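Following up on my earlier thread - several people asked me to post the actual chain instead of describing it. Fair enough. Here it is, all 445 residues.
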Amino acid sequence: MTRPINADVPVARAPRERPDEMSPPPPPRRPAKPKRRRKPVPGALKAVAGLFVLAIVFIVAAILGGGGGGGGEQATEAPAPVSEAPGTPAEAPAAVPEELGYPAFATANTTRVGGADPASTAAAVALAVYPSAQPAQRPAAVAVVDADDWRTAIAAAALMAPPVGAPLLVSEAGGMPDPSAEALAALDPAGDGDTGGAEVFALGAADTPDDLRTHRLRAGGAAGAAAIAAFRERLTGSPPRHIVLAPSADPGFAMPAAAWAARSGDAVLFSAPRALPKPTAAALKRHPRTPVFVLGPSSAISSGVVREVAKLGPRVRRVSGEDPVANAIALARYSEGGFGWNVNDPGHGFVVSAASDPLDAAAAAPLSASGAWGPLLLSGDAATLPAALRSYLLDVKPGYTNDPTRAFYNHVWVIGDQEAISVNEQAEIDQLAALAKIGGEGGER
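Reply from S.P.:
Thanks for posting it. Predicted structure:
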């Protein structure tokens, strides 16, 4: 098979700050410090690894214990899972799947990052992208954002794009929650030339440890997004190729910008529905020749704002859908002048998150800049897959005619726990992402 079976599907197209007080972030000059001893892997992360081992034990036990067919006698007792705690009675085998989260953790075509909150999700994603078992698997820097500022978090996703490569962790008012602190210890960033020597980028009001070289951008919201854009430009020495103008009052419409920023490094700026914030206008004036793509419908960013942006010089295009689910699909399909995912055929990665959790979009953004890079899609209901999302996934569903090992494959990351996206919804996503036989005997799974 030399080309995707859906290659003929037409591509859907949309109709045709740097603040003065900020200075370039030179690497902090201080006496050379002894190389930090790598911190031991925290107990919580070891526990996660233990769950993987137990999952494999259970699956193998299920296959060996229940796989006999025909008239043979069925096994009456399955092997008990191994427990690390001496003297602890073995759990009943039937309880193991629920404890392990299987199949809620993973199916053949989906993997869930099931954090109960954005801090847990961001920590899990960061360690999935940077396993950190070896120095080469660690990021040079980590971006830390305040849990109460989703706008700055979405803009900070651009810091994940090459060459900076900084994943996101979440801080709270009382300090870094345990998942963030443990992940930061395991990631053990060391800083390099691409990060200006910084090990941590502290954004907005985020709280960070005192023993790491930190570059702080104190602004938040629209001003914070403009500051991040200017900061990345100084780090890389290059202006953004495109600018995404996202709605500041409608987080569901802004969420897909995080995945694209992580993939491309494009700047994400924010606008109110009917007024362009001063930091955003100032950032746009500095880049009069950079194309601007407005994300979301006119109810989120009005046509008057679009005309105001056009007066500043740049070419402006709108990419939108009538609701957050359709809006995310529009960006996934879109392509113009190097902007947009242009995912209109099989063979891609995808990330699916609940439209109600904007911070999760930023937390999951590193998955769109590594592995099977792919766009963020949104689900509007924890129990039911939206019809528009089902239709899109069916449209890009992979297939084969003769040899499945030579086919294109889709893989979907599911973000959040079962309160965000249910197991039934994940199972349907798995079926839509599954490789299907086209023609001949057999058929769709």
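Residues 1-102 have pLDDT under 50 and may be disordered. That should answer part of your original question.
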